[in-house]
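re the bet — no i am not wrong, look at it urself. input seq straight from the record:
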Amino acid sequence: MDTSSAIKVFESLSSGIRLDIYRLLVKAGPAGLVAGEIGAELGVPPTNLSFHLKALTQSQLLSVTQEGRFLRYRANLGLMHDLIAYLTEECCSGHPELCAGTCQPAGSSACLNTAS
């Protein structure tokens, strides 16, 4: 992944509704959800939902397949993993394996100092 691609993904996720949609579809896994299920779960009206789903699909964060009258959306988990790899590839001077276990998730505690 390059910087331009990462920026496109982040811009697409910069809306709270879009972030909620993406997280819901990540949770749903490979089965995905039809648009009506997404709207019902998040309480988003169909026209508003359609706008956000289109933006997420254009950025390739979601894939969509037609199932009769319904559209099924799935999170592009490969792109999510590419983004995570892009963000962490320079960790510990390009050796992310050296950083394993040194940082807690944000909100739990700060990075542990292993150089003491």
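see?? The chain has six helices and three strands. told u. also The helical segments are 3-12, 16-28, 35-42, 46-58, 77-88, 91-94. so pay up
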